[in-house]
Amino acid sequence: MRFVSMIIKDILRENQDFRFRDLSDLKHSPKLCIITCMDSRLIDLLERALGIGRGDAKVIKNAGNIVDDGVIRSAAVAIYALGVNEIIIVGHTDCGMARLDEDLIVSRMRELGVEEEVIENFSIDVLNPVGDEEENVIEGVKRLKSSPLIPESIGVHGLIIDINTGRLKPLYLDED
Ligand SMILES: [Zn+2]
């Protein structure tokens, strides 16, 4: 039997007493899609800083808010299936992806028995350091705007959020 960690057990136990106000009637047809980082410090901070709540935006997260093919596919679904017409990439200061220790990651992968070939491909695909967080946001904006899947009528903006204060700084605003 698969070992069930304490974390998931705790979550499930807590959830027994959890009751959320029933929002099944909530209209959730937001026009906004946010692409951001999976950093745990963004939980709650990002929503408050942007002034958004449940049902207000589609949110796509990954390590380092990298605009890769998967993100572009999700953005396309948000646009064509869900009516989104504005996309904001929100990078953040002190992003872990800007200072990945590739040697450490590779040695941990070896320790945990990942095959060398898999490690090599992972290194090429994933361990490209983001470099500068602000440049990474601009790069993401460029990739979205140049993607044939994203029509020109969609607003694509780039911001960076201060991970400590929540202050937003515009890096690129798509103004017609
Ligand atoms: Zn990050």
Automatic annotation (TrEMBL):
Its cofactor is Zn(2+). Pfam families: Pro_CA. It comes from the Archaea. Gene3D superfamilies: Carbonic anhydrase (3.40.1050.10). SUPFAM superfamilies: beta-carbonic anhydrase, cab. GO terms for molecular function: carbonate dehydratase activity; zinc ion binding. Zn(2+) binds at C37, D39, H92, C95. Keywords: Calcium, Metal-binding, Zinc. Coiled coil: none annotated. Ca(2+) binds at E152. Binds 1 zinc ion per subunit. Belongs to the beta-class carbonic anhydrase family. This is Carbonic anhydrase. It comes from Methanothermobacter thermautotrophicus (strain ATCC 29096 / DSM 1053 / JCM 10044 / NBRC 100330 / Delta H).
